[in-house]
Design a protein that fits this description.
single chain; alpha+beta; D-Maltodextrin-Binding Protein, domain 2; two-stranded parallel sheet; globular
């Protein structure tokens, strides 16, 4: 396993493709599902998955916004292309 500080900073091809099509990625986070997702609004998004996404985005130089929604709405918005 590669230590985090030695991991490659290259953006995976899927993220590169999405970012090339959009200036800002829209990331879905489930409402209040501790410890993975904490918070009920976009402004209060927190938790393990949010922290992980922030670290990946910072390392890869990705611009994003986080949308906090109930899980079934995240799936629907993804299907409709509203969430990346």
């Amino acid at each position: 396993m590669t230590p985090v500080n030695q991991a490659s900073a290259t953006v995976p091809p899927v993220l590169s493709t999405i970012q090339a099509q959009k200036d800002i990625l829209v990331v879905g986070s489930e409402q209040d599902y501790p410890p993975f997702a904490i918070g009920m609004t976009d402004d209060t998004a927190d938790g393990f998955t949010v922290d992980l996404w922030k670290a990946v985005a910072a390392e890869a130089g990705l611009k994003y916004v986080i949308r906090v929604l109930p899980f079934h709405e995240i799936l629907q918005e993804f299907k409709e292309g509203k969430i990346d």
